[in-house]
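Replying to the earlier thread about multi-chain prediction with a worked example.

Input:
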Amino acid sequence: MALPAQLRAIQHHLRTAAEHEKRDPVVAYYCRLYAMQAGMKLDSKTPECRKFLVKLMDQLETMKKELGDNDSIGQEVVGNAHIENYALKMFLYADNEDRQGRFHKNMIKSFYSASLLLDVLSVFGELSEENIQHRKYARWKATYIHNCLKNGETPE
Amino acid sequence: TGSVGTSVASAEQDELSQRLAKLRDQM
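Result:
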């Protein structure tokens, strides 16, 4: 189902969920949970948004049943650790490539996905100051390096 | 139709909120 324009702010989280459907269903589940919560704050009034969010909720409930015996889904603290470890793994990979001066699409995507997953971490509660800084840095780096490569410049 | 539409909308919104709360409670 097409994403209504009013919910554009969650499109990348939903895309990350789709990319992890098979690779890491726990990541997919929490990306969709974040998108659901954020989407309801963005717009759950207009009919097309409500229809989209109902479908997303159906998907979440189905995933919940399928993954029910997984502790990362059943226990919030385990889920939190799962997402945080995954986000930081992506961040460290991209940061290492950056420090080695290896600039490419994969490392840009890893910086950006790390920032999205740090958004997702907020379903478990307030982000730590460290994670807020990581998210800001990762999003800035992804944008900066993407623009450098687009303009044919070498990132510092 | 305006008021009916609004009450349907808010009923559906409430239902979504309840489903989300239930999903989270089971975590």
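Chain B touches chain A through eleven residues (CB under 8 Å).

Feel free to reuse this layout for your own posts.
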